[in-house]
Design a protein that fits this description.
about 250 residues, alpha/beta, Rossmann fold, seven-stranded parallel β-sheet, about 15% strand, globular, binds nicotinamide-adenine-dinucleotide
């Protein structure tokens, strides 16, 4: 069952492909108005176009959402179009693994910038543009790698550890201002970005040790986001919801 998100205004970063794209299409199909933000202008435009072609409402924003000015400008324009912002999904990330001795400064900076700094801009954007009576909600994309060490994932895992902590800190700070903050923590979804880290063969092997004996899907993740955004989740706050077939609980 799809929760009703009629006319909910949702800005999604990294919505040009992968989990963000799917969430944008799914949330639009639940009635939401979507701000599709991505560093890849063509993809952002294509996803916004798909939504409008399906009868939904969307606007594309292109740019590096780790840059405060860019993030806040996109949020301000989206709020101008819609009246206010109800929700932000911080999905954008640069997915890279490497042995720690090979971590270079530009990749490290780019990953920290979009993975961590952008979250701060999202909180500022939400505070500037939400309806205080209606409330707002922020959803971050965490990962099971934030809770257990895996070799070669030092930057990515560090970012996702920060995402989890930021989610809890913002729950404490923004909850009293009627803004709910949660995270989803998907695992093993072979998106374009993830397939740059692990081959299709690796995903087939993984399915054998994931407790539910399959990889995740984009739908699994979008359904969890839609639930957390809905009124049914009105008292869920500061939660990091594993959408991972049991990976975090059992491995
Ligand atoms: N795929 C998985 O199994 C998995 C598991 C756990 C968490 N996640 C998280 O889910 C989110 C989406 O991942 P995905 O697998 O769809 O990856 P993906 O690489 O397929 O998509 C990421 C999107 O973010 C955009 N992006 C990157 N840097 C940006 C920037 N600076 N500004 C704006 N947009 C930018 C990219 O252009 C791309 O469209 C990420 O936060 C990722 O860490 C994914």
């Amino acid at each position: 069952m799809r929760p009703s998100l009629t006319d909910m205004t949702i800005l999604i970063t990294g919505a040009g492909r992968g989990l963000g794209r799917h969430a944008a299409l799914h949330l639009a199909s639940c009635g939401a108005i979507i701000g599709v933000a991505d560093i890849d202008a063509g993809n952002a435009k294509a996803v916004a176009g798909e939504i409008t072609a399906n009868g939904g409402k969307a606007k594309a924003y292109s740019g590096d959402m780790s840059v405060r000015e860019t993030y806040l400008a996109a949020a301000a324009d989206f709020a101008k179009m819609t009246g206010h912002i109800d929700a932000i999904v911080n999905n954008a990330m640069l997915l890279r693994y490497s042995p720690v001795q090979d971590v270079d400064e530009s990749t490290l900076s780019a990953m920290l910038d979009i993975g961590v700094k952008a979250l701060f801009w999202s909180a500022q954007a939400m505070l500037a543009h939400y309806d205080k009576d209606k409330g707002g909600t922020i959803i971050n994309l965490a990962s099971p790698v934030a809770t257990r060490g895996f070799p070669n994932t030092s930057v990515y895992s560090t970012v996702k550890g920060a995402v989890s902590m930021f989610t809890k800190t913002m729950a404490a700070e923004l909850g009293p201002q009627n803004i709910r903050v949660n995270a989803v923590s998907p695992a093993s979804v072979p998106t374009p970005g993830a397939l740059g880290l692990n081959s299709k063969e690796e995903y087939e092997k993984r399915a054998a040790w994931i407790p539910l004996r399959r990889n995740g899907t984009e739908s699994d993740n979008s359904n969890a986001i839609a639930f957390l955004l809905s009124q049914e989740a009105a008292f869920i706050h500061g939660e990091i919801l594993n959408v991972d077939g049991g990976v975090a609980a059992c491995n």
